[in-house]
Specification:
Elements: H1 15-25, H2 58-67, H3 75-83
C-alpha cells in the first residue's frame, strides 16, 4: 500500500494540552456523558499533566485537532507510524520488552495512564512514543 507523506505528533495529546484547548475555546461536547470522567471541576488529577488525555470522544478529538491545526491520523497512518515498514511485531522490535510499555492491567478497575514519556525504549521506528497500551 502506498501511503502519502504525513506528519504525526511524537506523543499522544496530554491532559495539559487538552486543558489548553478547553481554556482557549471553551469547548463543551454535545454529549457530555463520561466526558473527561477522571477530571474533577474542570481540572485533571494532580500529577496527570503529562499523561494522555482519556475519556474523550471521536468528536472531542476532532475538535482538538482542528483547534491545533491538525487532523486525526487514518488507521493505516497510525499503524505505519507505530510499526514501521519492516514487519516488526511491536513498535520497539520483534521481541516483547516489558520495559518498553506499561505492565498489562488485569484488574477489574484499570489503573490510570502512565506519562507519555515513561517508556522511551518503546519508541516506534519513527520515534512515536506511547503507542502500546
Amino acid at each position: 500500500m502506498h501511503i502519502q507523506s504525513f506528519y504525526i505528533d511524537r506523543y499522544p495529546v496530554t491532559n495539559s494540552g487538552f486543558k489548553n484547548f478547553l481554556d482557549a475555546t471553551h469547548y463543551h461536547p454535545a454529549d457530555s456523558h463520561n466526558f473527561l470522567k477522571d477530571w474533577k471541576n474542570g481540572a485533571y488529577p494532580e500529577g496527570w499533566a503529562n499523561k494522555p488525555v482519556t475519556w474523550v470522544s471521536l468528536e472531542d478529538a476532532r475538535a482538538f485537532a482542528a483547534w491545533a491545526g491538525k487532523r486525526l491520523p487514518h488507521e493505516w497512518e497510525w499503524q505505519y507510524a507505530a510499526q514501521g515498514t519492516d514487519g516488526r511485531l511491536y513498535p520497539c522490535g520483534n521481541q516483547w520488552d516489558a520495559t518498553a510499555a506499561p505492565e498489562p492491567d488485569l484488574r477489574r478497575e484499570m489503573r490510570g495512564p502512565t506519562d507519555v514519556t515513561a517508556f522511551p525504549k518503546g519508541a516506534s521506528p519513527f520515534g512515536g512514543m506511547d503507542v502500546v497500551g
